[in-house]
């Protein structure tokens, strides 16, 4: 019996035969995450039913010297949950229990497979969980932890990392570590969140929730072009206003979203700016008048204020539909996720226009305008020879333009496999070496999600300090001389 | 006495650190030295690297609400510059007798003040960090933009590391608008349980307070809630109403509230007594106050976060610790030398073995020669 078959046997003992998938048909679902053009079939997918089973699975992998990848709902957009061919995929979808709701401590404890939205639902109507990635109906909190997910409201409220209060983590050798926000010593919790599944797997998660804002005011303003909408954003920020959300769409994304939803966005507008203020009503009232005023300068075509919850939902419907609606104007598209200093918006959009012209491709732009997170959607037609490759190349140049403007290669989708080649555009060899040190402290054998984040594979050197047996030594495959 | 180095460039700081490491020497890293007693290294170091010469405000990008600060920049000076653009770094710990505390020292000690209620800890405000490692490299992580998930978040790892991983050279930080006006509401109560219940009611209400603090002194406690923004005064009326409903007495609104908050910050230091930071569940606040009362201690703290700074006679530290509620963790910050408190383990109970072992591995990877502030952190790291 080979090592793989032996490990599968062990996983079956731990989780039961129904929860270990090895047939290619059964594994088809798990070959990719939300970034479907990367595909890989693992040796097996295992669906543990409890944190304790996860721990046993991880330990079995360690003893067999087999790498593994943890997967939540598989909605990630950087290939972070792409399986490795010689490894195991640990699917956390069955770990869906909300373990406790402790509103006196503004805290909820859940298992990693619980969806992002389920947390807000569990604390409604008095509280909410602020990070709200657009996939929040299905994406799992475990995946959010791995990716440090953001969302439309993070300019004001921050990201997943700002809300994680504690984690139970299984390290690659099967050790269980409790990481608490207020514990003395290194902030390993902060280091773990956003580590894209490369440091271990979280099996219990405590998050902080906030009281639900007393009032919400929403408007959408239509401008002749993105430059003028950008100036309105600058004016709002300069006035010291921190909107709950401030989202921009360009002409092409308006067209796609309007065709999909028919909510009445103006098709003759070059840019739409959705602004939402939330908080105590005295504050939102006073500030909302200011925002309306600031959105009435040059190039403004119209401001529409939502006067009912229904109208607010309609305004959001178009924005939320923007990605999916792109299918109406192009057969396929590539979602980019770059960040720029917000004040460089006009020049970066000009650069994207130039690049799109050079490549003969259309690019729609959807923009979290407060924090500078740009989602250019590069449209292409797979039926046309070479176009998918050109689209990917263009998307790469766009992300490089973001870095050149002082920004980042990824604001919320993560590096995964998709962006790892761009890491050297942002980080020096010494920076990457420091990242690797952290990685090696957690996972000296490189078993957790190998091949992700870092641009080139690298091994950990000898662990200083107490001697540890390598899994290959334990298995009798290698010895130290 | 350690050999003192005061580099004014990153390269000089790196050379000082790397040379010491290569020569088997130990290094203490210090900013302005306002919190020297908080995590003293077990042995006197061979070298002290002071970062106060790295004092440039490298960037202040007002339109982007970001800034790049070298480690030795006094926070007070940075705040002045930000305030000129009606902005702030939402970080307000006590800054020392001459307002000299540096951003690097504040990051290394993870210090904070009342604004932590709304804006989070220093780790939540760091967008990127540049550090010198004892192996002889300068490493950066993060970026200069508000939103960024590329690479590991070493800013969080270095926040609260007390100089044990390397030298913080500079930090990229996120700024917030300075509130156009503030108003603080305060109310008092003599019973810890009633006071804590009022704090809970305020924490659960959608008030969007900038700060929500508690104080306790000689059998009497208070709650302070700060509203900031254009409608601060009107919102303060709502907060006052809620405080009365929650049973607080003597409720008043203070528009000129700077002095009130300076006093809260000052309560996080002690020159003559012992000062402990206690972190407990917010719902355990009443028990923390009762423990403090029994030990004749005074308290200031973040009511909704469960962080209490307890000032106590050195001889009563043990009694205080014995009375703390289960699950509370504590750290001894200030303690008079040669006092009974100085014998108490500064870090309280060590983390569970697996977490401590992981911390040791992190230390060993970043500072394999054990050069940087050896023994300063929990567990003798």
Overall 3D geometry of chain B?
Answer: globular
End-to-end separation of chain A in angstroms reads 29 Å
Alpha-carbon Rg of chain B, integer:
21 Å
| Strand tally of chain B | 18
Order of helices and strands of chain B: EHEEEEHEHHEEHEEEHEEHEHEHEEHEH
Q: What is the number of helices of chain A?
A: 16
Helix content of chain B: 25-40%
Q: What structural category do the secondary elements of chain A indicate?
A: alpha+beta
Total number of domains of chain A: 3
Describe what this molecule looks like in 3D.
With 481 residues, chain A is an alpha+beta fold. Helices cover 34% and strands 20% of the residues of chain A. The radius of gyration of chain A is 23 Å and the shape is globular. By secondary structure, chain B is of the alpha+beta class. Chain B has three domains: 50-177, Uridine Diphospho-n-acetylenolpyruvylglucosamine Reductase, domain 3, CATH 3.30.465.10; 182-263, BMC (bacterial microcompartment) domain (Alpha-Beta Plaits, 2-Layer Sandwich); 267-343, Alpha-Beta Plaits (2-Layer Sandwich). Chain B has an eight-stranded antiparallel sheet with strand order 14-11-13-12-16-17-15-18. A five-stranded antiparallel sheet of chain B has the order 4-5-9-7-8. Chain B is globular. Chains A and B meet through β9, α7, α8, α10 and α15 of A and β8, α5, β10, α6 and α7 of B.
